[in-house]
Amino acid sequence: MSKEKLIDVKNLATYFHTEEGTVKAVDGVSFEIYPGETLGVVGESGCGKSVTSLSIMRLIESPPGKIETGEIIFDNKDLTKSTQKEMRKIRGNDISMIFQEPMTSLNPVYTVGDQIMEAILIHKDVNKKQARQESIDMLTKVGIPLPEQRVDEYPHQLSGGMRQRVMIAMALSCDPQLLIADEPTTALDVTIQAQILELMNGLKDQFGMAIMMITHDLGVIAEVSDRVAVMYAGKIVEYTDVETLYANPKHPYTWGLMHSIPHIEKDVDRLQAIPGSVPNPLDFPQGCKYNTRCPFATDKCREVEPEIEEIEESHQVACWHVDKLEEAKAKEKKEKEKE
Amino acid sequence: MINYIIRRLLILPVILFGVSVLVFAMLMLVGPYQRLSTYIKSPAELKTANLDSLVEKYGLNDPFHQQYGRWISGVLKGDFGWSETAGATVTEAVLQRFPATLELALLALIPVIMGGINLGVFSAVHHNDPWDHVTRVFSIVGWSIPTFVFGLVVLMIFYGVLGWFPPGRLSVWASDIIRSSEFVQYTHLNIIDGLLNANLKVVGDAIRHLVAPVFSISILWWAYILRITRSSMLETLRKDYIRTARSKGVKERVVVKKHARKNALIPVVTVAGHMVLGLLGGLVITETIFGYQGLGQFFASAASQLDYAAVLGLALYFGFLLILINLCVDVSYAIIDPRIRLE
Questions:
Q1: How far is CA A100 from the centre of its chain?
Q2: Domain of B163?
Q3: What's the whole-model pTM score?
């Protein structure tokens, strides 16, 4: 892609220094987002995807959290070196964020309108009346019926889906270049999930912003993303465009994730889950962090951690044994043909 | 909300009736001859008087409903009976002491609530840094020292040694002024009356007498409110909507004062309600130490002398106060948190 990068994250590492030890929540992550595209970040709970997004916003609680190394280049500036004052001008204005829990993400003691207006009044040169009108317009855009009434209601008077729409309205009220959506649909019913994703896709085109979509749901990724970064234990293990990822996963972890999705057309007795669980961040295994769960792990994997490398054009993988996975895939294909 | 308040106020007499029956029943557990002691002025009388006829005369052996009926019919006419302890009617005795208690309570409330809340917020914002530790140690110490110890130490230092803050409510010369014909007692709150009469000497003297008791009550409640506010603030600052506010680019000061503090106040309001009740109900220990003629001291001596007309009257006063303050607390909840609807 020849377009200029909107945000360029280089080798970001965010650690939490707790009493039990150092948690390397994000440990050397690099990715970029181009204007107007959606980057999906997928991984299990605790893989560092939320910490990555909060690091970009510089909202990591410090102490215990700290951005140890890396750069976050946005608008020719390194956000890791920005002051909190400079960051406040960016937050909610250039980069906004929506969160997983719409039920708790809105302040219960202020009206929806107050909370949307707050962002507008901080970043735009408007008076209260104009801000209120803009809030109502935003509520209309996110598909909330009777926005003139809803604007004066409190969050508890709205359903979860409506609240997430309010969060989106708030996040988009200052026309950001990047929207970070941290599991925006996880807490919602499936039908509402689809509506919210559709709304976000629509608004993305309307506002011309980029989205960083963080989720553990590969279905969501497939629906909205242009490119995908798969994270495991604080690192990106596979990074490519969405078609390639689904058609040709190269990392055993991605492959495992794909196998654990139920398919309606396939009749299987048992889903293939990835064995074991995410390693304790205080005690990551030596070498490749996936070696404890990987079917292809060798001594090399247990000793040396693979760096992420471009193995095909715009397809990066961090694995020593991409060939072994290919063999397994071929074998699987053969078996299927036999049937 | 108005409907709710009116309904609660309409229930008030019913609850007060219940309170009075209960307290009256408890007092009835004390034998008629023991209760007669209220009417005996001196031990000498015991020798001469015919106790049986006195019990008969005052109807102390009558069935419960008759005795209660006599008392409550008086109350309905505004007569709460005669208090031996005060040497006045119960109504007079309470009205005479209430302004003293009110003045003490009002003066203590302001520093306690404002100071306690602000320090609590401050402590929570500076979580785990040296300032937080200082406030925490201060609040633990403040909350741990009993009033009778702290009050005595204050009295010893500031009156005994330094002679700055004398006990009592007013100096003799000031009492003479407020009783004189030129001085109009509008409210019976000495500070306010002094201001209204443009007599700053009286104001100064009233304040001088209030400093020590207010200080020793304040420390205790201050520490308590501080602790409640601090823990409530710490919890609130971890809430998702605080992160949302920060992600909008809201200044940290505004995050704390607008988004967090209002949410954190709910448990504080409950405690503040208890405190107001405690203060207006009278502070037995503080008033006794500082020789301050308030309701607390009156209640304590009335109870210890079986002055049951006074005890009953004060019980009704407490019931009334409790209901009123709970109502205020409920209304404050509804004002702070829109999720709480008063139905």
A1: 11
A2: 98-304
A3: 0.82
